[in-house]
Write a structure and sequence with these properties.
- The complex is a heterodimer of chains A (262) and B (307).
- In chain A, 76% of the residues lie in helices and 2% in strands.
- Chain A has 262 residues and is mostly helical.
- Chain A starts with a helix and ends with a helix.
- Chain B is of the alpha+beta class and 307 residues long.
- Chain B folds into 2 domains: 220 residues, Alpha-Beta Plaits, CATH 3.30.70.20; 42 residues.
- Chain B is 28% helix and 16% strand.
- In chain B, strand 6 and strand 7 form a beta hairpin.
- The radius of gyration of chain B is 30 Å and the shape is elongated.
- The termini of chain B are far apart.
- The model of chain B has no long low-confidence stretch (mean pLDDT 88).
- Classes of the chains: A mainly alpha (262), B alpha+beta (307).
- The interface between A and B is large, with 53 and 46 residues.
Amino acid sequence: MSASVDRFDERARREADRFGDTIVHRGELLRHPVYTRVLHWAVAIFFVLSLASGFAIYSPWLYRWLTPLFGGGPRTRLLHPWFGLLFSLFFFFQFLNWFVPMKWTSADRRWIKRLKQYTTHTNRIEAEDVGFFNGGQKLYFWSIALSGGLFLITGILMWFDHLVGSWIVAVSYVIHDLSALLMLAGFIIHIYEGTSHQPGTFHSMTNGTVTEKWAWTHHPAWYRAVTGRDPQQAYEREKRRQVERARAQESWERAQDTREKL
Amino acid sequence: MSNPQTFQIQEISAHPGPVPGQGTRREEEVCKYIDVTTCIGCKACEVACVEWNDHPFRETTFNDTYQTMPSTEWNYWNLIKFAEDQRDGNLMWLMRKDQCMHCEDPGCLRACPADGAIIKYENGIVDFQQDNCIGCGYCISGCPFDIPKFNEKTKKVYKCTLCSDRVGQGLEPACIKACPTGCLHFGTKSDMVQIAGLRAKQLREVSGFTDAGVYDPPSIKGTHVIYVLHDLKNPQRYGLPATPVIPPSYTYWKWLAKPIGLWMGLLGILAIFFHRVSVGPRMPQPEDPPVVTEHPDPVEAKRKEQP
């Protein structure tokens, strides 16, 4: 079973790479191949559409702001399940693509314990055992898998409400909303981490690459795995070089100043 | 619309005796009272409903009973339900006119997420506004009486309006007008409760139905359609729920948890914004240009020097 999934993923990645390019410059590492990137953005688009159309139905307060985007209330109601279905479809493939690197390990448990240090930036670079994904990313992935499954089941029950009992619909409605809140909480953090909080991360989902600096800062174990170099040593080396570079620049500037005075 | 009470006559010039109707106060809440014990199952009310609301005559479903179809439909709001029952070893043929109960606390309205799709008038009539309906079907699951019905073509939900168009013009609902036995009554809520109470008392004391009573369930704060049943202790015999309830998810969840969820989302966004402003981003290390350890702002440095 998992072997066939692996084969499928391998083939999908190869096929996608034939259509799209990932250019890796000097000092960069390949992080997300074309297949992953396309899936990510397909999931993202249908997530946002589902979120916006769902919020209109979820809250009477947002109803009048969001429904016009989809052509009025009935149209919003009509489109929402289809957005959700497409989200589920693309996420299913992303799930197959990612469930191996997303496997929960003891390193992730340690990462969760260090959550406070992570949010307050106690350490400049991550601990040595943080791999391709850190504990927070894995938590987000599995919470999407969980709430996505709940969404799909309860959503279908609510879609075909005339075939199931009214109490089932009434309960599904609550579970559907709880899943939405769980996913929304993760989504807010995800957007923040992916853009403003970790410069360089967004680039990995648009162009597919990250700098080596980014890799040893945020995912040292992954850096070690792909380059074979020690992340801590690489970091120290870069730091030394940086100081030397700054010194060299300073002396050059001083020389330039003296030349200008003469 | 002007309040009819404004035109209540107060004084009449040169009129001998008291002013007719002086001091009377008619309450605004309307009510339909159905005496199931005098219903003969003629279905005149069904026809009147279809005619007044301009619904097409639809095919009936024969189900080994005299019932027109198994349940009300999106364009068939009024249905006599036939049930065969036993009392002291004798057959009892129970006939009950089924339609929207116009609850004081309507489950459909609670469940509805669309702005203005369900309204309740001062007079107690619960009316669907199909223009605003989005066809989500939540009202169907919120109704304890299984009344709202979905129309696959228009993708909207329909149900009995208690002829709000007729009542607005001071007329009785169409079903009331058509009833030949007088088992259907229409008036103010208090009047109907009183008449129904008298009839129930008569059934108890004269006809020997000791459990007879008025069905006006308090679990949904009463309804604007009330029944006199020969056995109030077992309304299930007529296909009515003993204690109709709105699924609690529509009351607690909608008015408590939902706003909390929205506020949590808003606070989350604020928290992240202030995290970015205070703690700042995690830059790839080492940062370029190198971090300046000494304070670059001389004014700030001087401020820190002072005790």
